[in-house]
Specification:
The complex is a heterodimer of chains A (111) and B (115). Chain A is mainly β. Chain A is built from no helices and ten strands. Classes of the chains: A mainly beta (111), B mainly beta (115).
């Protein structure tokens, strides 16, 4: 089972500022990395699935990068908006094709 | 039905009682999953099914059982509920192909309280 660490646990960001947070995982037995967005009182929704070292994905103001050799992924949000407030989960996929979930980074955007 | 549904939305249950949480998806996904989510912890996999007729144990399977009689339904049963099973339970599904890593789609969750 992979050990997944996300940092920081929580983050307060002023509206309009850009921010980023980290997902760290063991680089061995890596198959893919998923990022999910989880709004309060809703269910997690997939943002990105990345598989290759150096992958970069983008959806609107949100982007993510992947380094499989050193075992980390960054999620970036440009020009934060109140609707970006959510918990962001990363989940590497292990050798059994199961997702191992991090505890998440809770992002709060201050107007 | 559009997507994945769970029932009930919430339930308060006496310890020792049997309870089945229902999950149905209409996306024809071959893989389905049950997770529990507890405060301060990430999602933890209870059981999974890669295809109809097969099931597997996840990280925290004790006290839970599942069945997968068809593609659409994946019920989770607590044979004799205990207070430590108080949690929010999420069902998810994905279209799983060898070599592909499709995202999981989640149901709305069931909040279960065992007293």
């Amino acid at each position: 089972i992979l050990n997944v660490e996300q940092s920081p646990q929580s983050l307060h960001v002023q509206e309009g500022d850009s921010t980023n947070f980290t997902c760290s995982f063991p680089s061995s037995n890596f198959y893919a990395l998923h990022w999910y967005r989880w709004e309060t009182a809703k269910s997690p929704e997939a943002l990105f699935v990345m598989t290759l070292n150096g992958d970069e994905k983008k959806k609107g103001r949100i982007s993510a990068t992947l380094n499989t050799k050193e075992g980390y992924s960054y999620l970036y949000i440009k020009g934060s908006q109140p609707e970006d407030s959510a918990t962001y989960l990363c989940a590497p996929m292990d050798s059994n094709y199961q997702l191992i979930w991090g505890a998440g980074t809770k992002l709060i955007i201050k107007p | 039905i559009a997507g994945i549904t769970q029932a009930p939305t919430s339930q308060i249950l006496a310890a020792g009682r049997r309870m089945t949480l229902r999950c149905t998806q209409d996306m024809r996904h071959n893989a389905m999953y049950w997770y529990r989510q507890d405060l301060g912890l990430g999602l933890r996999l209870i059981h999974y099914s890669n295809t109809a007729g097969t099931t597997g144990k996840g990280e925290v399977p004790d006290g839970y059982s599942v069945s997968r009689a068809n593609t659409d339904d994946f019920p989770l049963t607590l044979a004799s509920a205990v207070p430590s099973q108080t949690s929010v339970y999420f069902c998810a599904s994905s279209y799983r192909l060898a070599g592909a890593y499709n995202e999981q789609f989640f149901g709305p969750g069931t909040r279960l309280t065992v007293l």
